[in-house]
Amino acid sequence: MHAASNSIADFISVKLCCKAFERASNYVSMEKVGLVPWRKCEKGFQKRCKAANNAEALYRKGMINCFSRRKSESGLRYLKKATEKGHVEAVYTYGIILICLGGELSKQGLRVLSSLHLPKPNEGSSRMIASCRSKTEKFLRCMWVHVALTGPKGICCNCDCDIEEKPNHSTSTECQTWDASNDVGHCCDYCFWDREANLFCSLLRKYLVN
Average pLDDT over the chain, rounded to whole? Predict the structure, then answer.
């Protein structure tokens, strides 16, 4: 069964008690629901969608658990579930977190991010990356950020890329680097995602609650 409407207004007054409506929760759009639900009705709606494995609901729960509620393991599980359902922002966030964790997880993160099938970095900016960045910052602005990540130390790939210096330890320019163009010149996938992970970490520090 496909959802008859994409509006939360058509679902919020209905008790999702039958299997058909539970399945519909898997497909319904959550665009009109706040990224961090504050109203009781929105919380209930999002909970139903999450129980039905709605990819967007899983992504949102993962973000909140990872960066606000200090429930990293739980958050990663939700992000992984959303990633397995092809949720683009979940793939982006989950992959970058794994890269930041280092070791074998870093390699796993690169494999996850490769599923985005981005154009080669030296072909210019990526709208997909810009969209992921935009939604990430919008999400972080809506919640209390209590968890930051340490950016990757860099991957020795022996390439001849001309990517700019990593902003992992920057302060005054952090916001500028996040909003900067994605056109980083010639670089390999390793260096591209290493840079992106450092930009992601810079954004977390920007919204971190002291």
Answer: 79
